[in-house]
Amino acid sequence: MAGHGEPCAGPGVWNQTEPEPAAARLLSLCFLKTAGVWVPPMYLWVLGPIHLLYIHRHDKGYIQMSRLFKAKMVLGFALVILCTSSVSVTLWRIQQGTPQALEFLIHPTVWLATMSFAVFLIHAERKNGVQASGLLFGYWLLCFLFPAASATQQASQGDFQSDPFRHLSPYLYLSLVMAQFALSCLADQPPLFPKRPPQANPCPKAGASFPSKAMFWWVSGLVWKGYRRPLGPKDLWSLGSENSSEELVSQLEKEWTRNRSATQRHTKATAFKRKGSRDKEAPEMETLLPQQRGERGPLLRAIWQVGRSTFLLGTLSLIVSDVFRFTVPKLLSLFLEFIGDPNSPAWKGYLLAMLMFLSACLQTLFEQQHMYRLKVLQMRLRTAITGLVYRKVLTLSSSSRKSSAVGDVVNLVSVDVQRLTESITYLNGLWLPLIWIVVCFVYLWQLLGPSALTAIAVFMSLLPLNFFITKRRNHHQEEQMRQKDCRARLTSCILRNMRTVKCHGWEGAFLDRVLRIRAQELGALKTSSLLFSVSLVSFQVSTFLVALVVFAVHTLVAEENAMDAEKAFVTLTVLNILNKAQAFLPFSIHSVVQARVSFDRLAAFLSLEEIDPGAVDSSPSRCAAGEDCIRIQDGTFTWSQESAPCLHRINLTVPQGCLLAVVGPMGAGKSSLLSALLGELSKVEGSVSIKGPVAYVPQEAWVQNKSVVDNVCFGQELDALWLETVLEACALWPDVDGFPAGVHTRTGEQGMKLSGGQKQRLSLARAVYRKAAVYLLDDPLAALDAHVGQHVFNQVIGPDGLLQGTTRILVTHALHVLPQADWIVVLEDGAIAEMGSFQELLHRKGALVDLLDGARQSGDGGEGETEPPTGAKDPRGSAAGGRPEGGSERFVKSVPEKDSAASEAQTGLPLDDPEGPRWPKGEDSTQHGRVKATMYLTYLRAVGTPLCLYALFLFLCQQVASFCRGYWLSLWADDPTVNGRQTHTALRGWVFGLLGCLQAIGLFASMATVLLGGIRASSLLFRGLLWDVARSPIGFFERTPIGNLLNRFSKETDIVDVDIPDKLRSLLMYAFGLLEVGLVVTVTTPLAVVAILPLLLLYAGFQSLYVASSCQLRRLESARYSYVCSHVAETFQGGPVVRAFRVQGPFAAQNDAHVDESQTVSFPRLVADRWLAANLELVGNGLVFVAALCAVLSKAHLSPGLVGFSVSAALQVTQTLQWAVRSWTDLESSIVSVERLKDYAQTPKEAPWKPLTCAAHPPWPPRGQIEFRDFGLRYRPELPLAVRGVSFKIHAGEKVGIVGRTGAGKSSLARGLLRLVEAAEGGIWIDGVPIAQVGLHTLRSRVTIIPQDPILFPGSLRMNLDMLQEHTDEALWEVLEMVQLRATVASLPGQLHYECTDQGDNLSVGQKQLLCLARALLRKTQILILDEATAAVDPGTERQMQAALGSWFAQCTVLLIAHRLRSVLDCARVLVMDEGQVAESGSPAQLLAQKGLFYRLAQESGLV
């Protein structure tokens, strides 16, 4: 309620003929009184009803009457009584006949109604659970500010005696309002019965007061805690339900489904109409044109419907912020007008300084609220879209899975979702800067008249330059991204297949390939960085350039136009806003365009074909005995709608409890049959029905990165006795015994800590534990040793196994198990060739007999026997299935006494890691505390000391030029005017322009130096990382998760490439800018030093608190989000298993939990960012206030030019403060990547690849004689010997087989021969030369190994065959002819230049194995090692490989490591390994006659 004096009337009030300063008009008593009367009621009556509706819809529960509420009500009623008394006094005076102005009745009446409404709002907020009211906080603030100003003026005028009541009532009113305002700064108690359940560690925002919410003080507790000690998961707040995946994903999924269905209906209706009205060609065009738009529209509408309210509220906050943004230049103009008028009263200066401070603070608060709301919206959309993508992964059809690689899906979640959500911040940048530009030109026109038009011309001339630079930079960025993707794919493939790379000595060739790609990548980055520097300079200098042109035109064209402080520095302030608009607009366009690409990728992925849930008629109820469990009638299936059918006219009925074996040659459709039963294939015609729960074992075992027990239970409750039974039957107990934590040992990514056989048995155990009715088993015996496979068949799959009584369909190459099958189906070319019992099919002499004959010719038919083994020892007593006493103790950690099966079979290392020296741990540990200074020194040394000093010198020079330019402008503004003109205008203009040009040159040189130095450092650090990793022994790769290595080569390298140089550039720019502003304010008004020192302390305090907490939160967020990506990748790879087990719901819930854990860290981090921005901008605003206040105090001694220089410089520092801290924090977070790139510098390295002196001289070895002399080998110093005391000689050209149980040391001999693991004792001699004295590459290039898993690398077939580019095309075609692949390769597009995908997935397993054989033929070495090379191929491929061994490698020394004893029966000699020693040695016939270990193994394999 305004004070009541004389009404606004009189001849001088609205006199337009006499000019009056703007400050006098705006600060007049009449204006303040009018604003004070009408602004607060209008505010409350406009926003109050909206607020009431909102709190009614978001009712949080009832709050009990507290002391705070009672105090508010008492003060409210007191204000109502005061307003009533004002109305009553006026009416009484009118009744007494005293004339009263109408305003004396209207104003109190309006205030009476408004105060009554305010009291009602206080009550309504309590009823609806509002603990702190922002609406009433603003209302009481407005009620205090305007009347306080008018009351101050009125008090200065005196005249108290004339009307005591009307002079006293405003002071009483102000006292009550002040008390109400103080109470509105407090928060009430929480609701008594909250609508939402209480959380363990709730976010303090709910109970925070309004000032705390506005300035984010409620996060201070967490920031302080992070400053005192590292933050942990328990310190983080619980995620609110409004931000949880459960709520957000369901909302988006509902809207997406609804919009997509509506779009599909509309498309069909439109197509139907067009089909009737157009000719035949119309539908074809129609399918091409609207497809992309049809994919994008539903997703866009769904996202808008989920996030529109938050986005619109954030946009409203930004608009209000911009109103205050443009208020500041106007107030600066009034302030400089006040400084230039010696007769203005001092209180006007103080008031203007306060108003500038308040306007800047309100701009800050509204802008930070805008950022907070949009950042929360980003977080919510990231949660919702990630959940939507994950649910799509769970439903992808087989054709969709083939069109999308796992890396593409991970990129969708990690890159595209991030890029799309980050663009939310820039959507308003598409239209708001245009309004800024219009308002800025209006301001400039008011200040400079027609000269402002030249600013338009200059900006319009700069825009094409910036767009051209942006376009060229985008081109180079795309090129860099292409090279980076190429490098990442190649690096990933190398790391995943490092065993193959090292066995062949290919490290040098691959390093050269990676570094060539890296050089092209850095070349594109260098050009992009230089263009970026030019772009930044153009934005920074555009303000100066426009100012120069505008000032020159304004002062030189018209004689009467003189430069003054108001024109100079208000123009600069406006031009700075204009420059932000000019920079923000193209940046927003670029961000949105990039987001559109990501959006299209997401929309296309979400529109991919899904599996048909009705393809299989599945019933959860189990079928009774004698019923048909599985039925396929006239089934024709295809992998995709575009491809030809892979299964034709399948008719199959499987009764309950039947063991059905499915056999056939490679590519016959065996796995496709199981996929059809699971509904993974597209059904062209026919029907499929399954009764009962299904369990599925895929051909390639899929294992989760969880513990053994979690993998087996697969979401079911733990039954310890049943788990023991299952593990025993699946021959997993000996392996579990060797694991460091027993069944609680984690298996690693993709089961990398397990051998292939262990993964397959674990996959089988998962299915058995399920207790399903139907089991679909896709060749689970292929990767197992013969005796282990026989044990698993007998104990699990066979007639007497755990699965007896269930329906089992077994796809197998192990033909020796067929006699025990109830029914056999033989597939050929996607159709059933014949089916029946084993004896029936033998009598028919059809397809099955042909398969058996082919297997016998190859020398192995899954041990070649067609009769059940007799006289075989019970496998329970063997190492395969034996379970020592104390089965329940397997659930605790047990350390093996010697190397276990897992230790040697595949990984060559035990799973435990007892403090290995200098080896990085398996999982990336989260760093704690501040980054060490040595990391900064490491980076700066990589940049180069001269370059660092040069960059600092250039930054100093350009900042000195900036200071001189501003000071020169202040001198120009203060030049005296003689006859309407300033005498030195031309000189001032030329020097001003010269200083600006020097600053531009220095700025470009300094930024380019930093960015180019960053590229130099990145190149050196990457080369060092690559060298450190490549020189590491094979054990390093078996112990270190591939994800950790890939993270170094992708994310961490990208941070060092781009982020660190950019953050360093930003930090230097902002730091030198702050030094300049501090110098300007101090030089102009030395008195400001007194206030600047406390502000600096505040700044340092905020900086220290924020940096410590923010770095830790970022690390936690990065670690948490990696779980999300890993889980998505894991699910994509195991989609068929997840769907077969019907666990999509639990998996989706698990993904939601991972996302929520990530967002639990993201939310405090984004709030901490806003806390820093809001509070540092308030500190910056305090600097503006100090500069203005000191200018008022020193008005008599200061010129307007210096004041303009000081205050305008202080205005620019507002956001510089927070960005300096943000840049420092970002730099500290990013510099951790340097530490991570140097992680592997100190790890042990293998022997030199090519030593200066080598004992072997070409041609070595001439004959290929191998001699082991008392050879011993251990995998780590603290472990016992895995091989010990091995001594034997292999003569040149001799073919030697090496057999033994799993873990006996077979593969260890091959590792020792290739020096993958160095000898612990004794040694190996080849042709009389000790291999320990031969360079690793020399040794490995003279020994050829064909491994069990055929590995191809991404690239051409030619590159895969001839990695070192040593042979001609004719030689390549010759070896392809030898392995019978010439016709196949000739039919491929590009032939030898046909591009292989990663792992060679576009070729069959048999083709890949034959290509590996061709690769071995090309090397023409004297020594050949076959390490289970024929274990996983079909009999036809094995026949070809055996023929090659017999003819082309006849002169070679061959070491044949085999699980299948049949493979070694034609060897001249067989070594039988047992417990790391040679147990037996001799010809196969001699060893069988001895009836020793070889004989027992032959018995278990059914050979005798």
Summarize the topology.
Blueprint: H1 22-26, H2 29-57, H3 67-95, H4 103-127, H5 134-157, H6 164-184, H7 210-215, H8 220-228, H9 245-277, H10 281-288, H11 291-340, H12 346-393, H13 398-403, H14 406-422, H15 432-448, H16 453-496, H17 498-504, H18 507-557, H19 565-606, E1 617-619, E2 628-638, E3 647-655, E4 659-663, H20 670-678, E5 682-691, E6 694-697, H21 708-713, H22 720-729, H23 733-738, H24 756-769, E7 774-778, H25 786-797, E8 807-811, E9 823-828, E10 831-836, H26 838-844, H27 847-857, H28 901-905, H29 933-943, H30 945-974, E11 977-978, E12 981-982, H31 985-1030, H32 1034-1039, H33 1042-1084, H34 1089-1133, H35 1135-1140, H36 1144-1193, H37 1200-1237, E13 1266-1273, E14 1283-1290, E15 1295-1300, H38 1306-1313, E16 1319-1326, E17 1329-1330, H39 1336-1341, E18 1343-1346, E19 1355-1356, H40 1357-1361, H41 1369-1378, H42 1382-1386, E20 1395-1396, H43 1405-1419, E21 1423-1427, H44 1435-1447, E22 1453-1457, E23 1469-1474, E24 1477-1482, H45 1484-1490, H46 1493-1500
Parallel strand pairs: 1-5, 4-8, 4-9, 6-7, 7-8, 15-22, 15-23, 18-21, 21-22
Antiparallel strand pairs: 2-3, 2-5, 9-10, 11-12, 13-14, 13-16, 16-17, 19-20, 23-24
Helix pairs in contact: 2-4, 2-5, 3-4, 3-6, 5-6, 8-34, 9-11, 9-12, 11-12, 11-19, 11-37, 12-14, 12-36, 14-19, 14-34, 15-19, 16-18, 16-33, 18-19, 18-31, 19-30, 19-37, 22-24, 29-31, 29-37, 30-31, 30-33, 30-37, 31-33, 33-37, 34-36, 34-37, 36-37, 41-43, 43-44, 45-46
